[in-house]
Amino acid sequence: MISETIVYLIMAVIGVLSTIAVYMAIQERDLVKAVIYSAVQSSFYALLYYFLMAPDIVLVYLPVAVGLIPGVLLILISKTERWEKE
Amino acid sequence: MKLVELVLLVTLILSIALLLTFAYMYLTPTSEIRNLAVFYLVTTYNPQLPFYTVNSPEAVTAIVWDYRGLDTLFETAVFYLALIAALALARKLYVEATPEFNKGNEGLSVIVKTVTKITSPMIIAVGASIGLHGHLTPGGGFQGGATIAVAPMIIIIIFSVLYLLTKRVTTEKMLLLRSLGLIGIGLTAISAFIIGLIAGRTTYVFQNMPKFDAPLGLPDKLNGVLISGTLWFFNLFEMLAVASGFTMAFIVLMLVKKEG
After folding, report:
1. Does residue A85 fall inside a structural domain?
2. pTM to 2 decimals?
3. By residue range, what is the domain housing residue A37?
């Protein structure tokens, strides 16, 4: 019972940290940094999936959300402007 | 802007409070397993039930490619159509490497390039392992293919897309690989049916292991190695299709020039 509580507490902390990463990604004016914050949030989500005992989802979530989507977004940013305007 | 920040902070604090107080009380899973889950867990690898089992110790892959194989086939079709749409937007399918490209000038610094040279074969190896062991350990075709596709992605960003093209990773070859993967998935889906046609017995499309009214199925072991019938082939071809499809999309996306 104690170990279960600890796992749920870790999951709660990871969820809060991912929310903070989302906040940073929204607030950031530098789009490259915002993409990195988004990748950080995705890694927290992958950890959450792992604690929820879904290793298959972790394996599909990590390459797509940390590898491919930031890559595509970086390509798109390189084609437009790096700084967000008011 | 102030209002948005305030709402976000309040949501944050409330979510902490909610998680710490209520999540543990209400979200604890019970020890009872539902009947459907019991059915899948009992039949997924059970040689004592030869007409129900999939002979794959990985229940998720067994469900994805056997119990609900048709759904996954249509998911693959959706992915295929999405890639066709992306390529149609780019309208630049056949690209050759420009001869005047001299490597070493483009891309990031030498350190990053060396690290990429070391890590990208590792990424491909891990992806192949995830894909080809999909019927034994967590993973599968899509996971492995998506992992493999990260390697050309970082090569495109760190070197340049022309570097990839000079290494003969062209869209034509990727198209060939992807078509090979999709044809393989189709053939694997009807393989048991074709075997039945040749042998003159009753078999079904998308059949994997032998069933009550169709005792002819695919073997679960090949030369003593567990391949779980169609699952290994589905994973292999799905991995090929996903990896080459993503790679092709990245090359084409990177080559689109700004017009005007």
Report:
1. no
2. 0.83
3. 2-79
